[in-house]
Structures are given as C-alpha cells and as structure tokens.
Amino acid sequence: MSKQNKNKKASKNNSENIEKEVKEVKEEIKADVNETKLEEVKTEEAKEETTESKTQETKKEKDSKEENEKSEPEKKSAIREIMEWILCLVVAFTLAITIKYFLFTPTLVKQSSMYPTIFDGERVFVNRLVRTFKLELNRGDIVTLEAPMYLEGNGQVIAHYDEHTGLDWLVYNVMEFGKISYIKRIIGLPGDTVKLENGEVYINGELLDESDYLIDGVETYISNGYYDSQMPSEFVVPEGYVFAMGDNRSHSRDCRELGCIPLEKIEGRVVGRIWPLNKFGSITKSDMTIDEVKEYNKKANSGGI
Question: Which residues are catalytic?
C-alpha cells in the first residue's frame, strides 16, 4: 500500500474518532441539560407544593380564625344568658323572701291546738304587716308565733328563746330554715291580770266571754293532760308580752306551759282560711260539739301541739 493511501486512511480514522468524541460530548451535554431541566422541574414542583401547602395552611388558619370569631360572640351570649337566668332567680328568691317576711304568706297548719276552729292540714293566710309596722294586736286575734324553748322560770312568767345573730338570724328568721311556729289565739294583752279558775278565764277580775269563738263546754285550766304547768294560776302579763292559748284548750301546748310571748316573736295575724276551698274566707266559730272534739283528741297523736 502506498504511503499516500495510508495517510488518507489515518486521516479518516482520526475524523471518525473526532466525530465520535464530539458525539459523546454532545450526548453528555444533552444528558447534563436533561438532568438540569429535571432538577429544575422537580424544584418547581416542590415550590408549587410548598406554595399550595402554605396556601392550605393559610386557608385553615383563616377558617379557624373565622370560626373562633364566629363562636366567640356565641360563647359570650351563652354566658350572658346563664348570668341573666341566675340574676333572675336571685331576684325572684329575694322578692319572695321579702314578701313572705315583711308582707304576707300562706301557712300550712300542722297542729291540732286550734281544733275545731282550724283543722290540722288546713292553710291560712297570715298578714305580717303586724310585725313589720308593729301594729296593735287585739284580744281574740289568731296569730302565728315563733315557738319558745321553755318557761324562763325563777318566778318569771315569760317564755325563753335562744338568740340568733348575724347570718344565723337571717337563715332562721327570714328564710325560716329549722324554725318552728305555733298558731294560737291572744287572750291576755300587756298589763292584763290573767286568772284561770274553775275552768274559766278571768281578765282584770272579770270573766272573759269567749263565746264568739269557743264551742260550748270548753274548759280552761292552767294544766292539762299533756304537761304540768309551772305558771301560777293568776299572773300579770308583762309589758311587751302577750298571753296566748289554743282553742283546743285540753290539747294545746301554749303560754300556760311556756310563758308569755314577746311581741317581737309574733310573726303575723291570721286573717283568713284559703284551704280547703269549701271553707275559704274568714275564720268563724265551729259548729262541732264538745263530745266530737273530745273524741278527736282521743285519736289525735300530735303530742298536744
């Protein structure tokens, strides 16, 4: 082979090698470009995902904020409504207690001491303006009074009461928690000389006419079958006190056992009966007989109260 042909063949091989290298370089460059684009696409997608995630979070935060802003007035409204109900209940309770203590109140009778004028289980209406304005009481008035503890004794004819002060006074006297009251009829007024003799009542030396409210045959003694009185059969009602007894004289625990009652312990005057409805109205003398009353007393187990 000639030298010229060898040179041509070498030149051709060199060209092919160069073209091959160029082709490889181009492919490498293309691969790098593709890889770069792929990374850019991935980066762009990541940015979009991040942006979308932030958008969703922002939307959630906005929705949450809107819900909170919306629910806040509802919560405040609910709290306000609860407070208004509490206030209404407090006002109603205070008003009821005020009316009951200072003005008037219905009262359930749980005693037989006023039988047959007032039966156990009947309801009466009590005017408490007597206590509020210290109105004058009259002989023959039916009243409710705070139950005394016992006769003071030591020659005194007055009832003993435990003193209540502060919050205890409010709970006991105004709210009447744990308080016991009696219903009786006023017989002796302050300064009266009262004498019980031979089943009769004498006031200031004169026989007391009780025919307007006592049935025929009722007798009054200083002691009855339920207690032994320490009161004298004749005494003077101290100033600021009254002497009261139940109409059921043989079945009543009253001033004959417990002593005269301070005026401030009189809770109110009974002005009428409100139950049962067939006896609604003023309280009048019973039409029962003394034998019927005695039979009732035999069956009664109220302890003489």
Answer: 113, 184
